[in-house]
């Protein structure tokens, strides 16, 4: 087995090296080396690290804001840790294409310091291997927050031509309402994204993220007990069949009118032809050398000020700083990784400033604002993200050339 692993490893190393040569703009060899080391230990089975996995999802709101699950991680002991996040495909759904796999992801690791509100940025996933982003380092015992992040370059509102509407339910010969094949497939896909621990069942807690997202109300223990009498459950958790039946009942309640069902589907990021275009399911993996990591989804909400502070701090600490021409109180920080560039404007002055941002000289780039030229207002003594930039077409060279200038 050892020899077999070694062969695979050699092949893998060669492939990585070749890819590095071909793609030298995008791949950082030293980052790659860390991954190779990790994969090597993993493949050779030397690494008896303990693992934990949790799923989650980014959802795009009507106003373009992105919300996602947030997690608490508990480590009983100081340990070497490896954390990764990647968009996940859902094999059960048997889709031809999962376009959300190209959505960029990142994870910010914050540490609770004395109180729950006082969070400090520890690090973020800087390493990249294809669609996976990771971080490897040492963490002390304690409670951490893991905040998923996506720039909004790829997960964004797009206007498409309305091209029909999928049918959700139909009546069989006996006049009984049934789910169409397409709707069943979408529901099973939804089930997988809701099943955060991946055990094939929905607990009340997991189910409530669905309720919160679609109706804004939680289901309590009593209602859950009623569910148990009507729908298939195992170990007090809803099965796939139970979830399908529950949705069929919803359709029956409205006498086959799909209006409510569409409200549910749209809020989960589906469009009218049942493509998941405004959501991106992801999976987080954590392995620790010395203890079993424990991870739990706590909420489903916008990143908020905690996440934007973390993003800004990461750019301030890892990015290159430049003072804006003609104003010693304004700094532009630029963080570059293989796949993303983020710039942050810091205002050290007493007045609000308006900064003009011009990307006209950039080539093959897209940003999270969807505009080539725009203005940003920065409040006194504060900082904010100017833009996140990514390649429009990753296979081709992309050139970032941005001019920030002071308007007033
Ligand atoms: C590659 O990554 C390492 C470690 O993250 C960093 O120190 C180095 O500056 C990076 N090199 C390039 C060319 O981005
Ligand atoms: C925890 O917070 C306090 C007060 O905000 C600060 O002085 C201290 O340095 C922080 N500790 C760590 C380990 O960051
Ligand atoms: C749904 O999304 C797919 C993929 O982006 C697109 O081709 C289709 O036209 C969309 N349908 C509607 C009704 O918007
Ligand atoms: C000079 C000054 O107070 N600068 C502030 C600008 O805003 C950042 C972020 O809020 C502060 O950390 C600086 O102290």
UniProtKB/TrEMBL annotation:
<dbReference type="InterPro" id="IPR018247">
    <property type="entry name" value="EF_Hand_1_Ca_BS"/>
</dbReference>
<dbReference type="GO" id="GO:1903569">
    <property type="term" value="P:positive regulation of protein localization to ciliary membrane"/>
</dbReference>
<dbReference type="GO" id="GO:0046872">
    <property type="term" value="F:metal ion binding"/>
</dbReference>
<dbReference type="GO" id="GO:0060170">
    <property type="term" value="C:ciliary membrane"/>
</dbReference>
<feature type="signal peptide">
    <location>
        <begin position="1"/>
        <end position="20"/>
    </location>
</feature>
<protein>
    <submittedName>
        <fullName>EF-hand calcium binding domain 7</fullName>
    </submittedName>
</protein>
<keyword id="KW-0479">Metal-binding</keyword>
<keyword id="KW-0677">Repeat</keyword>
<keyword id="KW-0732">Signal</keyword>
<dbReference type="InterPro" id="IPR011992">
    <property type="entry name" value="EF-hand-dom_pair"/>
</dbReference>
<keyword id="KW-0472">Membrane</keyword>
<keyword id="KW-0106">Calcium</keyword>
<dbReference type="InterPro" id="IPR052266">
    <property type="entry name" value="Miro-EF-hand_domain"/>
</dbReference>
<dbReference type="GO" id="GO:0098797">
    <property type="term" value="C:plasma membrane protein complex"/>
</dbReference>
